[in-house]
Amino acid sequence: MSALPTDLLPPPPLEPGTLRVVALGGLGEVGRNMSVLEYDGKLLLIDCGVLFPEEHQPGVDVILPDFDYIADRLGDVEALVLTHGHEDHIGAVPYLLALRPDIPVIGSRLTLAFVAAKLKEHRISATTREVKEGERAAFGDFHCEFVAVNHSIPDALAVAVTTPAGTVLNTGDFKMDQLPLDGRITDLRAFARLGTEGVDLFMVDSTNAEVPGFVTPEREIGPVLDQVFAESQQRIVVASFASHVHRVQQVLNAAHAHGRKVALVGRSMVRNMGVAVDLGYLTLPGDVLIDLRQVTDLPDDQVVLMCTGSQGEPMAALSRMANGNHKVSIEPGDTVILASSLIPGNENAVYRVINGLMRLGARVVHSGNAKVHVSGHSAAGELLYCYNILRPKNVMPIHGETRHLIANGALAVKTGVPPERVMIAEDGVVVDLRDGKANIVGAVPCGFVYVDGSSVGKLTDDELQDRRVLGEEGFISVFVAADFAAKTIVAGPTIRARGVAEDDAVLDSLVEQVRQSVETSLAEGANPHQAQQAVRRVVGRFASNRLRRRPMIVPVVLGV
Amino acid sequence: MSALPTDLLPPPPLEPGTLRVVALGGLGEVGRNMSVLEYDGKLLLIDCGVLFPEEHQPGVDVILPDFDYIADRLGDVEALVLTHGHEDHIGAVPYLLALRPDIPVIGSRLTLAFVAAKLKEHRISATTREVKEGERAAFGDFHCEFVAVNHSIPDALAVAVTTPAGTVLNTGDFKMDQLPLDGRITDLRAFARLGTEGVDLFMVDSTNAEVPGFVTPEREIGPVLDQVFAESQQRIVVASFASHVHRVQQVLNAAHAHGRKVALVGRSMVRNMGVAVDLGYLTLPGDVLIDLRQVTDLPDDQVVLMCTGSQGEPMAALSRMANGNHKVSIEPGDTVILASSLIPGNENAVYRVINGLMRLGARVVHSGNAKVHVSGHSAAGELLYCYNILRPKNVMPIHGETRHLIANGALAVKTGVPPERVMIAEDGVVVDLRDGKANIVGAVPCGFVYVDGSSVGKLTDDELQDRRVLGEEGFISVFVAADFAAKTIVAGPTIRARGVAEDDAVLDSLVEQVRQSVETSLAEGANPHQAQQAVRRVVGRFASNRLRRRPMIVPVVLGV
Question: Name one GO molecular function term (chains A, B) (predicted).
């Protein structure tokens, strides 16, 4: 373990008997998880998720793994294994299947149900195969064994992949809650057996590797909810992630215990919980669920609204309630519970929602003032258990920013894994496993693939830079049509400025400068392009000197 | 205490014997602190700071208090009292003095020195009066007593203002470190005496009111720094706020103890520490300071770089080091300490810096993994002490978002202040103090005043909305010049699109649609405005249906 290699060359051709591992996403960021295992010319894919954009990626809907590395080898893909049903593991499946629709998609029952709902929206049908913990299945040379893991969504799996080159264990996302609500623990017996048989490469979730100790059991949230419900005399609104079946279960239980009915709010919440009920992952105590339209028929102290929007998303129900723009109006004395983590980067948005709710008189309970959320990822203490139970020969931390990967690698080293057997790799870095030893042997190009409206992969970093300039500074455009033969302006100059804070009078003075510039160009026999460049300089100087700013400048000089 | 009043009317005229308090900033946000006290037609101003913009205010440099309420009464201002030298308390002074340069500016020695440095940059000279803790001074009818408070900058003061209507105590920013590095504690003896004499309105810092317990003493950072210094065998880089004299002092002490020299990096760091040394607030152990140019002459294990950039500011030295774009290159084994808080909203930027430094092989020590920062604001436990020592008749929480103000008010109520005597007010809300009772009597308009390049107060919320659209979606502009009499297009259609991710070919198909639209308009005898509106519809439909996006559309149809 040391500084990340930054000057990697393309990898050598894959030698016989070697397993190659390349992440197309998820290493260096939290999201768009996807790994490619290659053996003897065939590929096995693990996960295919999306990444949500940060503020320096404005207007981007989601970010995909970079499929380029496998784009011309899709025929060699034996299967896509999905570890669980979260967006950062399944969100990009429709985009992959758009390239080759018949890739077999492997996953647990709930995972495939969530994928099916997603594919339906994209009008794609897939070839799926349902697997269970304990089950084994071979996809070409890739012999897979699926292992139960506990996470913040039911039915999550780790996958052990054995080829003649050795065994790779990929944890997916997991934690080690020893008393989970559904009794389905991370199967450390299986981990121990695999360890005894020999795990050659351990690909392990790094999300919480920096967090010391152990994650609080999910069931400790129940009593806290119970307490808040007991103290509430009016309506209760709970916001959480739309896939967190166990969290919703605890809210349903608390509501039932306190004589309240629950209305689900928000498309994804209604859809996912419908799936969870249908498949038996969510149990309804009594007739606890009601329709949102029935809420007004009940006294306030018998109502719970279960909604999304816990990250401050401006269009979600919770934000609209906080702004007074929702049919459910928050009244003084109402209670709002944000039963989710605060994902870094969303702080301002979340606090705006909390301030808005408090301004309306609501009591707001959130992870900052009560234990209403626990993480779904193993903390450092749990990871140490894993390393000691598995004793892997080589370790490749996955799922995380660089800081998480490095922290996870350091834990591996503490348990006795030699530092040179810890692969700190980012997206596109090529790891080869051969004779029980993993090594970084090169890197392939791996970029960000932006989905933006109907466009996939067309948005470039240059265009994002344009957006940042436009968003910070606005633009000034100038239009002039001129007869270059007659050397006269025939239309314009007309100025349009947006996002530039100036009085019209200020911009009027620019019209005159542009006119003079064009007239000079005409007199000097310039062509339209030269005249346009001259206008650009005039407007740029005006913005810099007069406005002390750097808006985008868009000059158009046309010859008639 | 209840929901914030949202339908306040303009206040009644100020009655004789009544003190009026209005905040022009700082109530409902963390920053741009400024309060106006009015008695008998005269005004006393307390603090005049700036607020830094959030991501929904793109391109804004800083945000000022709204001076509108006092704009035509500046002649009535007796003085501006500054509690301490942080930007959120002094940053807007140049903008206020630009309106009336001879307002007397009152503050402690270090506060006035920082103001002077700032005014020099704005080429403004001010009328100042230096005051000390324990000192009394009258400005018209406003009889002020200054009280020492402890904060994350030396020489901070609270101010008690007595008029015939009673005594107001404004804490400024403060905490109650009982063993501060400079021995200058918050003067609870003076608070106790003022309480005994009677504090009619207690205006109290709310920043940490949600945080239970007590702030860790600043001096506990020293041993942590010492430990990190002892473990470091190469260069050490420390990032902190440029005004945190005591933090820098501890770094200088640790460096000296470990045989290292310190180079200050960054304009504000060099300037502020120069002032602090000159005035005796910063003590140099030995010849510990060196120039940045001397760094390369020393072995790596004798070097400390003290810089700004702890909030991930992209242009600061630390970000550039993380990106490898700084003359100081980070090497594997170097240590970087972020000795500051992580201000909400900056998480992504800060983690980008941390990831970048770790990628280069640095060890990064920050508040997430070591005790290298403590807050400058009293936590709930400290505030309870204050309320009990002062026993104020009325309380007005200041300095904070709504959630902070409400949390602080709840603490006051717990100590026995009647709920109806706690003024939860936002910017512009008018509080009148009369006969020992404070009441909210109305509100005055109070908006956000944006500084953007050379423009102050010209940027409107509409223009910010334009910027958000431009930043998220880009724009498509179309330019056509036509002879409306001859019913022919003479130039164009020409399209310019920026921040819109599409192939040229896609936009080419739009040219044809626009041409047809304009030709139809011409044939139908439309005027240029009507033709332009038709073009807007064509482009809008194209963007929505074909691109599935909503860029800004800027059509220009000119008649020749």
Answer: 5'-3' RNA exonuclease activity
